[in-house]
Structure formats: C-alpha cells, structure tokens
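user: can you give me the structure for this one chain? tokens are fine.
assistant: on it. calling the predictor now.
[tool input]
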Amino acid sequence: MFTHIMIGSNDLARSKRFYDATFIALGGQPGETDARGRLIYLHNGGRLMITAPIDGKPASAANGGTIGILAANADEVRAWHDAGTANGGMSIETPPSLRPNGQFVAYLRDPDGNKLTVRSLPPEQD
C-alpha cells in the first residue's frame, strides 16, 4: 500500500545519529542522503525518509501518529530500544515487553518527538 513514510526533522544530523543507531540495531544499514538532503532508510522492504519541512516551518510530530517497524525477535526489539535511548530518543509507554498477542514491543519518541514502535511477530503456532 505505501511507497514510503516521510517525517520531518529540525536537525537532520541529530536524526541521522538516532536513526542510524536504531536501524543498525535491527540489522539494517545507516541511512543514505539524497540530492535534496533527505535521509533515506531501507529496511525489510520498507522505506523511511526524513527531511527538513519544505515550507520552512519547524517540523512537528503527528499527534496520535505512530510509525511501526518490524523486528526479527525480542532481542532486536531490546537492541533497538537501547540504541534509541542512547542516541537521543525518549522511552515512552512501558519498557520493552511481551504483549498478550505474543508480540514483543517497545516504544520511543525520536529526537523530534515522532512516536515509533518496534515489534516482533508472535511465534508461529504448530
């Protein structure tokens, strides 16, 4: 359905430190910068792009919005959360935890306030 998700940042260098660390924790690669200065992260078939707002106004986080990212397992979720909090992210909700639906889940706000979640799929049932 989606080709990409684009979010705004007020400090692309700060965002690059945060997102590089969190995507590396998930087994991904550091972001690339395109000709327009936008950061681009490719991971598991998805694309996240981060840019300074084109209207010149400050970036702001979506109220009620959450960006969900898939992790391979609970260890990746924990590593993502640790990397994010060590690189300017703010832990929100509960600590990384197993949910009743079998997913292991963590939440953070990035340095610009965007709400992110990483979750592993529940184990397959025999």
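assistant: here you go. The chain has a mean pLDDT of 92. The beta strands are 5-8, 32-33, 39-43, 46-51, 67-71, 90-91, 97-98, 104-109, 115-120.
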